[in-house]
Write a structure and sequence with these properties.
By secondary structure, this protein is an alpha/beta fold. It has 2 domains: 125 residues, NAD(P)-binding Rossmann-like Domain (Rossmann fold, 3-Layer(aba) Sandwich); 162 residues, 2-Layer Sandwich (Dihydrodipicolinate Reductase, domain 2). Helix content is 30%, strand content 21%. It has 11 helices and 14 strands. The strands form 2 sheets. The chain has a 7-stranded parallel β-sheet with strand order 3-2-1-4-5-7-6, sandwiched between helices. The two termini are 35 Å apart.
């Protein structure tokens, strides 16, 4: 059995990790931290987990409380994982970080976008980006995994086949919508139901902190600089990300060839589902699952290809992807604990 700890067990991604790992046949959750709920039973705070966690109680986030873990998941705000990473790694404990602490390879860029000083920049080089469909082989030997963000997951999976093929202009657009759970579990006026319900808005248009992460990934795919315009939006729903991506074709390529490009690229990817050309993927059709659904459109037969990419931001965009990465690192079937059908309706 893999002994797993979760730092930050009361946020939405932390609870999603608990939900997935509680039914994982090769994992025992041995530590869940929360500074505000120390000593409280986890299933008292989250009754949906009753009967699955063996009377597990919240503990303080410390090296001592995590020292018997084989792997520690950080479902914490940015800036937390980097404070404990070095000491955990020195004890042979694997780290899977769901925050952005180790995603960007350029330390100065990270500090610019996240507004703080990185406390262990020497670890960034060894961190493997946790997007299994791209970095599967590297994840098998990674001791420090930096899980991809939710927006970056939907966007990168949507553009990947085109950039590797080299058949689009490298000025691309990502128009992406997210449910309010992406903002985290905290009391904040902007995410109250009274504020978000019956409303829809763009935000951070001048620059969102996921922009450098997405650009870093797209540039690696294309092997040259990619210019991305990224506009996120907040939608009045709890879960889900819908990415509408725009790319200009530079080669003569038919609808059939485009569809075949995607179907072939993702043929062996259990968690990426390429729909029929012209389909309209719906976020509810991936809700609660670790799947990304993708569909292609070529409006009016022109040169602008529209790619639609949807995920559940808490699963494929966070906790599910983290477990998928863990499975790879520990030599387990990649779908272990993740072979679930989306919730409908």
């Amino acid at each position: 059995m893999i002994n797993a700890g979760i730092v930050g067990g009361t946020g939405y991604t932390g609870v999603e990790l608990l939900r997935i790992l509680a039914l994982h046949s090769d994992v025992e959750i041995t530590a869940v931290t929360s500074r505000s709920d120390v000593g409280m039973r986890v299933d008292a705070l989250y009754p949906s987990l009753r009967g699955y966690l063996k009377n597990l109680t919240f503990c303080l986030p410390s090296i001592e409380s995590l020292e018997n873990c084989d792997v520690v998941f950080f479902a914490t705000p940015n800036g937390t994982a980097m404070l404990m990473a070095k000491e955990l790694l020195e004890r042979g404990i694997k780290i899977i970080d769901l925050s952005a602490d180790f995603r960007l390879k350029n330390v100065a860029e990270w500090e610019q976008w996240y507004g703080m000083t990185h406390t262990c920049p020497d670890l960034i080089a060894q961190a493997v980006y946790g997007l299994p469909e791209i970095h599967r082989d590297a994840l098998r030997n990674a001791d420090l995994i930096a899980c991809a963000g939710c927006y970056p997951t939907a966007v990168q999976l949507g553009f990947l086949p085109l950039l590797e093929k080299g058949c689009i202009d490298l000025n691309v657009i990502a128009d992406v919508k997210s449910g309010v759970s992406g903002a985290g579990r905290k009391a904040e006026i902007a995410t109250l139901m009274s504020e978000t319900g019956e409303s829809f808005k763009a935000y951070a248009v001048s620059g969102h902190r996921h922009l450098p992460e997405i650009t870093q990934g797209l540039t690696a795919m294309a092997k040259q600089s990619v210019n991305l315009t990224f506009v996120p939006h907040l939608t009045p729903m709890i879960r889900g990300i819908h990415a509408t991506l725009y790319a200009t074709l530079t080669n003569e390529i038919s609808v059939e060839e485009l569809q075949n490009l995607y179907e072939t690229h993702y043929a062996n990817e259990e968690f990426v589902d390429v729909l029929l050309f012209g389909s309209h993927p719906d976020t509810r059709n991936v809700r609660g699952s670790n799947r990304c659904q993708i569909a292609l459109h070529l409006p009016q037969g022109g040169k602008t290809l529209v790619i639609l990419s949807v995920i559940d931001n808490l699963v494929k965009g966070a906790a599910g992807q983290a477990v998928q990465s863990m499975n790879l690192r520990f030599g387990l079937p990649e779908n272990q604990g993740l072979a679930t059908v989306a919730l409908y309706p």
